[in-house]
Write a structure and sequence with these properties.
The structure is a homodimer of 323-residue chains.
Chain A lengths: L3 H12 L9 H11 L6 H11 L6 H24 L4 E2 L2 E2 L1 H5 L1 H19 L4 H29 L8 H26 L4 H28 L2 H4 L5 H4 L5 H9 L2 H11 L6 H11 L2 H22 L8 H10 L5
Antiparallel strand pairs in A: 1-2
Helix pairs in contact in A: 1-3, 2-6, 3-4, 3-8, 4-6, 4-7, 4-8, 7-8, 8-9, 9-15, 13-14
Chain lengths: 323, 323
């Protein structure tokens, strides 16, 4: 058994050996560009952890991990084009450096490479691994489309449950599938695979609620982002959508007005509405609810509880919980 | 054994049963849009023919055929975005109808679906099938990038051999891989697979030379396209690149001038240079050279020659040869 930190180090060592061909340079420089921006490599580590929950680490988990990390970066590359984002992690995005066509194509070639890695896993579970991956990959695309569809609607027109569904698809199913793929490599049975998948999905949703909460109410110095960044761009978040459900008619009017204007104190005024309708308290509870669901899922997995410790640690770390 | 026409009918019946989910509508309508434009479905029929060259038709060849047809349409969808093409087959392209973001994402979800079909083939040759497909798919992307890179260069700066290589990657390797995938499903050995692959690649290049030739010198009524369409948009073709090699300094100057201007009689003037430097005769010979290479490859395949008849017929049909 290895700690989260040890697994990240092991994976990075493996992942950094993978190189794209040198030619055509425009194509592969664009693909390398997004990978060189770094990242926490959470998803591949979930593959390794899913494997180690049930068995010794198998080289196939590194292949599956490489596949999900390439896929995740492919989605970032194409999402940045769709969002017309000039920057990612403070650096120019691939399409601004290499042009949109090269960036579309670089994403495509990365997605094909995903399957080069999945194709290396043992024939005994190859079909199952590709199938679990494909379902998640398709759902990520569906989630992205739903997100774009929601963006064109008024916040009031988006149902909270639809939003949870969208966020689940866009951000959580790949975490869940990463764990499940690892567990398949580790030899887990169907029931254990499903509990682990559910754990990953619920942790993902709790994390996203926390992310929205911290953007609004977090300490900007600690969080490393501008406070209220989501509010400034009228981003649909758990908080904004739920606020429309929770607030009274006067607050609702105020919120609508704030969304169509940009006063200097927009962030503070929106935060005042959020606080008065107690959507901050609601978010804390909702995050806790999904966290609890996740830990219940983990409890259901039929392995010695000592083996679950790294996953508990990771969830507590991601969800900023004190033990 | 089935004829080309019978195999097309069988494939279409199978392919048309495949439906995308209904939601999210923007995503899947955009994917269906390109498929509904039709097409000759040559590539999947090559899968079926590659299979039948060695054995009875296997349902796996329909899965592999569906995969290559989806992949081909995915490339058209993304290429149209890169080329900013408003029309395909006289109809508005997917990105003009559904927006660029939905079209990028629809291509992505189609590419993932490719692997859903490849994942259905027998475990005994799944790894090999995915591996052959992936190599071709990566090469198609590389060819597309090389094509875009060449577009920004002067025609004189593009070497003929590099252009043949690019065209091979962009248009021929998928034909070749379709045949090879079918042959794997039919149980062919490595040697026969390679000969069949080479046959497909050489037919593809001969076809592309013919396509360039007909665009310039073909009968517009028979060809169904405007004569000299490539010339009008200064498209790099076999003819233009070779003309720069074959023509004398005066002709070269004239060609350069014509490329930077658009006189009313541009097409005729370029055709005059093509004729005087005999690039038309060269193209006929070059097409014949690749065709001969292809038929030599077919001869090398160790099966009864009667089994090769449908492939010969298809090649003669595609290359407009009288038997």
């Amino acid at each position: 058994m290895h700690s989260f930190k040890e697994l990240i180090a092991q994976f990075n060592q493996y992942f950094d050996q993978q190189k794209f061909p040198e030619q055509p340079a425009t194509l592969y420089n664009s693909a390398s560009h997004i990978l060189n921006m770094g990242g926490k490599r959470i998803r591949p580590v979930l593959c390794l952890m899913g494997n180690e929950l049930f068995n010794e680490l198998n080289p196939d988990a590194f292949e599956a991990g490489t596949a999900v990390e390439l896929f995740h970066n492919f989605t970032l590359l194409h999402d940045d084009i769709m969002d017309k984002a000039p920057l990612r992690r403070g650096k120019p995005t691939a399409h601004t450096v290499y042009g949109e066509s090269a960036a579309i194509l670089a994403g495509d070639v990365m997605l094909i490479n995903v399957y080069e890695h999945l194709n290396k896993v043992n024939a005994g579970y190859k079909q199952k691994i590709i199938s679990v991956f494909n379902r998640a990959a398709i759902e990520v695309c569906e989630g992205q489309q739903m997100d774009m569809d929601f963006e064109s609607l008024d916040p009031e027109a988006v149902q909270y449950d639809d939003y949870v569904n969208m966020i689940g698809l866009k951000t959580s199913v790949l975490l869940a599938a990463s764990l499940q793929m690892g567990s398949i490599i580790g030899g887990a049975g169907d029931g254990n695979q499903q509990h682990l998948y559910a754990f990953g999905k619920n942790v993902g949703i709790a994390f996203q609620i926390q992310d929205d909460y911290l953007d609004a109410f977090g300490d900007p110095e600690k969080f490393g982002k501008q406070q209220g960044g989501d509010i400034l761009v009228n981003k649909k978040t758990f908080l904004l959508l739920k606020a429309f459900e929770l607030c009274n008619p006067a607050e609702k009017e105020q919120l609508k007005k704030l969304l169509t204007s940009s006063p200097d104190d927009k962030v503070n005024k929106v935060l005042d509405v959020f606080s008065s309708c107690k959507v901050d308290k609601w978010a804390e509870k909702e995050k806790e609810r999904f966290t609890q669901l996740a830990f219940n899922n983990l409890d259901e997995i039929a392995v010695l509880s000592a083996r679950k410790e790294p996953l508990k640690e990771l969830a507590n770390f991601l969800l900023e919980r004190q033990q």
